[in-house]
Specification:
Chain lengths: 188, 808, 219
C-alpha cells in the first residue's frame, strides 16, 4: 500500500521551494529573530475531522504535552487538499473557547440558577427518572390488543454531531427502553 | 449524494438549486471550480444572489417555493424537444411501464384523495400487472398509459409562460438554464444537480427532489461520473446519523421501524421484503431478512435465537400512520403529554420553526437532559428573556460534551466516505463524549431493573451491551461478527470474527451487524478501513478522481451509486473518457459495480442497474410518495398568491400541520403579510449558531442578525442600509439589521410585484445583543413524507424599528 | 529570488477561511464588531486583522449582479515605501528580507512614535499598516515568516479552498498569473494584474479597481 503522507517540510504545491533560515540573506539576524520558533515545533500530529459540514475535511491537530496548540487542514485528504473554510479554520479557538461547559450542571425546578454537580449524582438522578417514567407509562398493548412495548412519554432528540459509534449506542439504548419519539437534525 | 465531492469535477453542467454550495460547503466548492476549469457551465438558481452565484456563469432568481414549477418546465422542455437520452430511458427506466387504470390527475389532485383525512389512497397509482404479477411493459411507448406518455401530458401544462408567471423567472432565464443543462442528455455528457435544505424545507420537499430524479433519469445522468443527484448534507455526521437512524421511522440500515401490524419477525419481513417477477431485476431488498436478523443479533447477542424470533417482540412498535417526528413531539409537549427527555447536540429552541411555540412547549416538561459544548437557547430556555425562572418547573441536567478533537470514532461524509478520527486531547474539564454518557446511564438503569425489577425488564437486561464504551469495539459491532463458525467461500470464520461484507450476513442468527450498509468496513483481512490513507488509483480511477483506497465508502466501497447505469447493455461506458466501470475480459474494472453480475447483454445472469428498486428500473412514476406519483406545483402553506395557473389546488392537499393556538397561519394573499421570507445559514456560523457564536473569531465576522432586502422594498418602507428593522409574521416578531442590497430583487409573479427577504437563523439570545431566533417567524407546516417543516418560505411584513432591544 | 502570492479574485468565494486562519495562526484577539448592513466584518484592517475579505457589489452593463471579493493584505512591495519612510526615523523598524521578499515590521516600530508611525501608514499605497495602541507597534501581514522559514505555506494560502491564493517563487507565480489572466480575459476582457511589477502579492482583478476597493490597485 502506497502511503503518501507528506510532511509539511515537503508538502508544498508545485513551484514552492523550501526556504531555510540560512537562505535568508543579509537581514538574517533580524529575520531570524522575527520568525522565531514556530508554535507547532515538536508537537505531535493527530488526525481529526472538522465537526461542521458534511464535507468532513480532515484536520491535523497539533498536540504538545497533552495540550492542543494549533489546528490546520490535512493536505493529504483528497477532498480538501488541506483547505478549510472560516469555521474549520477556527477550530482551535472553538476548542479553547472560554465559553465551554466544564462540569455537569443542574437546575432545580423553579430555581433561578445552575449548580455544579458530579457525574455520578447526575446520572443516578436521570436513571431514576427514566425508570420511573418507563415503569409507569410504557404501553405494552395498544387499543387493539397488539403487543407494542413502546414508551411514549419520554423522547430523544439528537444528534448528527455524534459519531457513528455514538449513534449506534444511542439508538440501541433508546429502542431497548422502548422510546419511539426519537429524531434529530436529519429532519430539520 | 449518489456521487461524491471530488466527482463534481467531472460534470459538464452543474446546476446548483436549493443550495448555496459555496457558502455552506465552501471547501467542496473547490470541485465545482475544477469543473468550471474544465469548461462546465455553472448555474445557480436561488431566491437570492449569494457567494455561490458570484462564481457561477449566471444566477437565476427564483421565488422561494416554486422549484417544482421551474423543474417541471425543464421536464416539459426535455420531452417536447426530445432531448432525453433515448437508450438509457428505454432500457433502464420505467418509462415504458403501463400505469394502472385507477390512476388519474385532475385539476391539481391525483386519484384516491380523501379530503377529510388529507391523505391519498396510494394503491390507486399502482402499475398495471401481467399474469405473473410483474409490470406490463410497452417498449414501443404506444400505450397512452405508458409512464412517459403520462409524464408528457402532466408536464405539458408547464409551459414557459406558466412557469415564468409562477416562479418570477423570465422566459429567457428559464431557457438559459434548460438549454445548458439539457445539453447533458447525450451519452458522453454529464450534469449534476446539487441541492440541500433549500429543497427539503418545503411542504413539497420530497417532490422537489423527485423532480431532479425525473430530469436526471431523462438525461441519463444517474450512475455516471459528473452526474447524480447530490444532496449536500448539512451536519458533520448527518449522513451517518441517518444511516444509524436516530429517527423514529427507521432502524439502522434503512429498515422501517416495526409497527403494531407486524407482530412477528415473519410478518415484518413479509411486509418489507419486495418480490419481483422480473428475472433480470436484482431486487436487492429481497435480502432484508438477513440484515434484520443480523441487526437483532447485534442488539441482543446470544439472547436472540430463532426460537424467540431473535427478540423481535421486545422492539417498540409504532401505531401505523402515526407520526412521532420532532414537530409532533413538540406539539405533544406543548399539550403537556410528555414528561421528560434528552436533547443532545441540537438547539431546537433556535433552529426549529415557530420557535415561540417550541419555547413554550419546553416549559411543560418535568425534566430535561441536555448535552452540549456551551449553554444554548435550549439548555437555558427556563431563563430566556421574558421568562420568570421562579415560575418554570422544568428540572434541567446539563452535561458538558466533548469536542471532536477530544474523542475518537468514525463519521460519514456526504459522499458516504467513512472517516476515522483520532483523539487529540482529553475532553475539557469533565466533558464526555455522548457514548460515555449513555453507556454508564444505561448501566445504571440496568442496575435498577436488576435490583428492583420493573415493567418489561427483558429488552434492557438481555441486551448485548457493554460496561465501558470503546469506539473501536463499536466500529466492529457496526460492521458485524460471526456468532457461529461459518464457511464463506473457501474460508472458515470463527465465532467472534468480523464479517467480511454484507454478502456474508444471514437470516439464521449466525451473524450480527448493527448496520448492514457498513458491513465490510472493518474486516479480519484488512482491519479498520476508515483509517486508510492510500491515494493510489488505477489510471481509469484517476481519470475521475475515485480514490477507492482512501478511507472506505458504503456500500462495499462503491463510490458512485447506480454505476451499472453508466454503461450500455454490453458493459461499455457511455463515456469512455470518464468511465466509472467497464466490462473488460469478463470482469468489471473501475469502481465497485452495483452487484457482481455481468452486463445486461447476458440474458441469463445480467441485471438491471437500479438494484434497490423492486423491478430494477429507475422510477419516473412512483407510488411511494404521500403526495403523488409525479411532482406537481403547489404554493407554500403561506403564499402571497390567492391562486396559481396550474390548478385550483393552491397548496399541497396533504401537507402536515398542527393547529394549536400558537400555530397561526396567514391566509393566502394576506395583505398584512405580503412579503415572502426565506431563511438560511451562513458560512461563518453553524446552523443555529449555538457553537460558532461562542467562537469569538467567527462572531467577529458575522456578529448580528440581518435581513437582506432589495433597494426597491427598502425605499417602499423608508429603510436605509444598517437600520434596525422589525419583521413580523402571524407567529412572531424579530429584530434585525437591514442589509439593503442589489442581490435581492423584487419578483413579478402573475403580473404583480412580490418582494422577498432573506434572514439567517444563526442568532440567539444567549449571545448578548446579537439578536434572537429568526425561526420565531417561520411556519410549522411540513412535507407529508418527511415531516420536514417549511422553513424556506413563509409570509411576513416589516418596518423600520424605533428602538431595538434584542440587538445592541 | 523572492516569493510571491497570486490572489486570483475570480476564484474567490469569500469563505473567509484566510481571514480567520490568519487570526488563529497569529493568536490575534477578536474585535467587538456590529452588523452595519454589510458582510464585510471587521469593516477594515485593524491591529488584530492583518487580512480581511472586502465585499463590493454593483450591476454590470447588462443589469446583472456582480459581487466582487477582495482578500486584502500587505503587498510586500518590491520597493516598500513604508520601509523608506520608517528608515528615516528608526532604521530596522521595517525590514525587507531579500530572500523571501517579505516586508516585516519589527518590535523597533514601537520606537517610531505616533507621528512617524502615521507617516509610515500614509506612505503605503495600499493603506495596509495599522498602529496597535497597546504595543505602539505597527501591525500587518508578515508573510507567515515563521511558517515559510520552515518551508510551509503562509496559513492563508494553505487554507484557501478554491485556489484563489497561490504562493511560490516569484518567477513561477508571475508566469502562472499571466496564464490565469489570459484565461480569465476570455470572460472578463478588462481583467488585469494589479501593479504586478511593484508587488509580491499580485491580484488578478476582473474589472476596474473601483469595483473592488479604493486601494485595490495603485496604478
Amino acid at each position: 500500500m502506497k502511503k503518501t503522507r507528506r510532511s509539511f517540510l515537503k508538502g508544498l504545491s508545485a513551484g514552492v521551494i523550501c526556504l531555510s533560515l540560512g537562505q535568508l540573506g543579509f537581514d538574517l539576524k533580524e529575520a531570524q529573530a522575527f520568525a522565531g520558533a514556530i508554535k507547532i515545533e515538536g508537537a505531535k500530529e493527530v488526525i481529526s475531522v472538522c465537526p461542521f459540514c458534511s464535507v468532513c475535511c480532515q484536520v491535523i491537530a497539533y498536540v504538545r504535552d497533552g495540550a492542543l496548540v494549533s489546528t490546520e487542514g490535512d493536505p493529504d485528504f483528497p477532498v480538501s487538499e488541506g483547505a478549510l473554510c472560516a469555521k474549520g479554520a477556527a477550530l482551535f479557538s472553538m476548542y479553547s473557547s472560554h465559553h465551554r461547559l466544564q462540569k455537569p450542571l443542574y437546575r432545580a425546578p423553579y430555581s433561578d440558577r445552575w449548580e455544579e454537580k458530579d457525574w455520578d449524582w447526575t446520572l443516578n438522578q436521570i436513571a431514576r427518572k427514566v425508570k420511573n417514567a418507563r415503569d409507569k407509562n410504557i404501553i405494552l398493548k395498544d387499543e387493539k390488543g397488539r403487543t407494542v412495548n413502546r414508551l411514549e412519554n419520554i423522547f430523544m432528540m439528537g444528534t448528527s454531531h455524534a459519531s457513528n459509534e455514538e449513534c449506534a449506542v444511542i439508538h440501541q439504548a433508546m429502542r431497548g427502553l422502548g422510546v419511539v419519539h426519537m429524531d434529530h437534525q436529519a429532519r430539520v | 449524494m449518489t456521487n461524491h465531492w471530488i466527482d463534481i469535477q467531472n460534470s459538464d453542467a452543474v446546476l446548483i438549486i436549493g443550495s448555496n454550495a459555496a457558502e455552506h460547503h465552501p471547501v467542496a466548492f473547490k470541485w465545482v471550480m475544477r469543473a468550471k476549469d474544465r469548461g462546465a457551465a455553472l448555474m445557480h438558481v436561488d431566491p437570492k444572489f449569494s457567494r455561490t452565484s458570484a462564481r457561477c456563469d449566471f444566477h437565476v432568481p427564483l421565488r422561494s417555493g416554486t422549484d417544482i414549477a421551474f423543474l417541471g418546465g425543464m421536464i416539459n422542455h426535455i420531452l417536447e424537444k426530445e432531448l432525453y437520452f433515448k437508450e438509457y430511458v428505454e432500457k433502464y427506466t420505467n418509462a415504458a411501464f403501463v400505469v394502472g387504470k385507477n390512476y388519474a390527475f385532475n385539476d391539481g389532485l391525483f386519484s384516491g384523495f380523501n379530503a377529510a383525512a388529507r391523505r391519498y389512497d396510494k394503491s390507486m397509482w399502482a402499475m398495471e400487472t401481467g399474469p405473473d404479477g410483474g409490470p406490463v411493459i410497452d417498449p414501443s411507448f404506444k400505450n397512452e398509459r405508458c409512464v412517459i406518455n403520462l409524464m408528457r401530458k402532466h408536464y405539458s401544462r408547464y409551459t414557459l409562460k406558466n412557469v415564468s408567471d409562477i416562479t418570477g423567472v423570465s422566459q429567457d432565464n428559464l431557457l438559459k438554464v434548460y438549454d445548458r443543462f439539457c445539453a447533458t442528455g447525450k451519452p458522453d455528457k454529464a450534469g449534476t444537480i446539487m441541492y440541500a435544505l433549500g429543497w427539503t424545507q418545503h411542504t413539497v420537499g420530497v417532490q422537489n427532489i423527485r423532480c431532479s430524479a425525473l430530469i436526471q433519469l431523462l438525461l441519463g445522468n444517474i450512475g455516471v461520473a459528473g452526474g447524480g443527484i447530490n444532496a449536500l448534507r448539512g451536519e458533520p455526521n448527518v449522513q451517518g446519523s441517518t444511516d444509524h437512524a436516530l429517527l423514529y421511522n427507521n432502524l439502522p440500515g434503512y429498515h422501517a421501524t416495526p409497527n403494531a401490524s407486524w407482530q412477528t419477525l415473519a410478518e415484518y419481513n413479509k411486509a418489507n421484503t419486495p418480490v419481483t417477477a422480473l428475472k433480470n431485476s436484482a431486487n436487492w431488498w429481497s435480502n432484508r431478512p438477513k440484515y434484520m436478523t443480523s441487526l437483532l443479533k447485534g442488539w441482543f447477542g446470544d439472547a436472540a435465537t430463532p426460537e424467540n424470533d431473535f427478540c423481535y417482540a421486545y422492539l417498540p412498535k409504532l401505531e401505523p400512520g402515526q407520526d412521532y417526528s420532532y414537530m409532533y413531539v413538540m406539539d405533544k409537549m406543548y399539550h403537556g403529554k410528555l414528561e421528560g427527555g434528552f436533547i443532545f447536540g441540537v438547539n431546537p429552541m433556535n433552529s426549529f420553526p415557530n420557535t415561540n411555540k417550541m419555547r413554550a412547549a419546553l416549559d411543560k416538561l418535568d425534566w430535561l437532559v441536555c448535552s452540549e459544548l456551551h449553554h444554548s437557547e435550549t439548555t437555558d430556555n427556563w431563563q430566556r428573556p421574558g421568562s420568570d425562572p421562579k415560575s418554570q418547573k422544568t428540572e434541567v441536567f446539563l452535561l458538558p460534551s466533548a469536542h471532536r478533537i477530544e474523542k475518537e470514532g468514525t463519521i460519514s461524509n456526504s459522499g458516504r466516505w467513512l472517516q476515522w478520527f483520532d483523539q487529540g486531547v482529553k475532553p475539557a474539564g469533565e466533558a464526555r463524549n455522548f457514548a460515555d454518557i449513555f453507556v454508564p446511564l444505561f448501566n445504571k438503569i440496568r442496575a435498577l431493573y436488576t435490583a428492583e425489577g420493573g415493567v418489561l425488564p427483558e429488552p434492557i437486561l438481555k441486551m448485548h451491551w457493554t460496561e465501558k464504551f470503546k469506539a473501536d469495539e463499536w466500529t466492529k459491532r457496526i460492521n458485524g461478527f460471526f456468532w457461529a463458525d461459518t464457511k464463506v467461500g473457501d474460508k472458515t470464520y470463527k465465532r467472534g470474527q468480523l464479517v467480511p461484507a454484507f454478502g456474508a450476513l444471514t437470516a439464521d442468527g449466525s451473524t450480527s451487524s448493527l448496520n448492514w450498509v457498513y458491513a465490510g468496513s472493518y474486516t479480519e483481512e484488512e482491519g479498520n478501513k476508515s483509517k486508510r490513507r492510500d491515494t493510489t488509483q488505477t489510471p481509469m480511477q484517476a481519470a475521475i478522481g475515485l480514490y477507492p483506497n482512501w478511507s472506505w465508502c458504503w456500500p462495499v466501497n462503491r463510490r458512485i451509486l447506480y454505476n451499472r447505469a453508466s454503461v450500455d447493455e454490453n458493459g461499455k461506458p457511455w463515456n469512455p473518457e470518464r468511465a466509472v466501470i467497464a466490462w473488460e475480459n469478463g470482469k468489471w474494472t473501475g469502481d465497485v459495480p452495483d452487484g457482481p453480475w455481468p452486463p445486461m447483454a447476458d440474458k441469463e445472469k445480467g441485471k438491471l442497474p437500479f438494484i434497490m428498486m423492486k423491478d430494477g428500473h429507475g422510477g419516473f412514476f412512483a407510488s411511494g410518495p404521500a403526495d403523488g406519483p409525479l411532482p406537481e406545483h403547489y404554493e407554500p402553506a403561506e403564499t402571497p398568491l390567492s391562486s396559481h395557473v396550474f390548478s385550483k389546488q393552491l397548496s399541497s392537499p396533504v401537507y402536515k400541520f398542527h393547529s394549536s393556538d400558537m400555530d397561526q397561519v396567514a391566509p393566502p394573499a394576506d395583505p398584512r403579510y405580503p412579503i415572502v421570507l426565506t431563511t438560511y445559514s451562513l458560512t461563518e456560523h453553524w446552523c443555529g449558531g449555538g457553537e460558532t457564536r461562542n467562537v469569538p473569531n467567527l462572531l467577529e465576522t458575522e456578529p448580528q442578525l440581518y435581513v437582506e432586502m432589495s433597494h426597491e422594498l427598502a425605499r417602499e418602507k423608508g429603510i436605509q442600509n444598517g437600520d434596525g428593522v422589525i419583521v413580523e409574521s402571524a407567529r412572531g416578531r424579530v429584530e434585525a439589521i437591514a442589509m439593503v442590497t442589489i442581490r435581492i430583487r423584487p419578483f413579478t409573479v402573475m403580473g404583480k410585484t412580490v418582494h422577498l427577504i432573506g434572514m439567517p437563523f444563526a442568532y440567539g439570545w444567549t449571545t448578548p445583543k446579537c439578536g434572537d431566533s429568526t425561526n420565531r417567524l417561520t411556519i410549522g407546516a411540513c412535507d407529508p413524507n418527511t415531516t420536514i417543516p417549511e422553513a424556506k418560505a413563509c409570509c411576513v411584513n416589516l418596518h423600520k424599528a424605533d428602538t431595538l432591544t434584542e440587538i445592541g | 529570488m523572492p516569493k510571491s502570492f497570486l490572489i486570483d479574485t475570480t476564484r474567490c468565494t469569500a469563505c473567509r477561511g484566510c481571514q480567520v486562519a490568519c487570526k488563529e495562526w497569529k493568536d490575534l484577539p477578536a474585535n467587538d464588531t456590529k452588523q452595519r448592513g454589510s458582510h464585510q466584518n471587521p469593516p477594515d484592517l485593524n491591529p488584530y486583522n492583518y487580512k480581511i475579505v472586502r465585499f463590493h457589489e454593483h450591476l454590470d452593463e447588462y443589469g446583472a449582479v456582480v459581487w466582487n471579493f477582495f482578500p486584502d493584505q500587505c503587498r510586500h512591495c518590491t520597493i516598500p515605501l513604508c520601509k523608506d519612510v520608517a528608515d528615516r526615523a528608526v532604521p530596522g523598524a521595517i525590514i525587507k528580507d531579500s530572500k523571501s521578499g517579505a516586508v516585516l515590521v519589527t518590535e523597533k516600530s514601537a520606537e517610531l512614535g505616533p507621528k512617524n508611525a502615521q507617516a509610515v501608514i500614509n506612505a503605503c499605497p495600499y493603506n495596509i499598516p495599522r498602529l496597535d495602541p497597546k504595543t505602539k507597534r505597527l501591525t500587518k501581514c508578515d508573510m507567515c515568516a515563521d511558517r515559510i522559514a520552515k518551508g510551509m505555506q503562509p496559513i492563508c494560502v494553505k487554507t484557501c479552498p478554491t485556489g484563489t491564493m497561490v504562493f511560490g517563487e516569484r518567477e513561477e507565480i508571475l508566469a502562472l498569473a499571466q496564464k490565469r489572466l489570459e484565461s480569465v480575459k476570455r470572460r472578463f476582457p478588462k481583467a488585469f494584474l494589479a501593479d504586478v511589477r511593484d508587488v509580491n502579492v499580485v491580484y488578478l482583478l476582473a474589472e476596474e479597481k473601483e469595483h473592488y476597493h479604493e486601494y485595490a490597485a495603485f496604478l
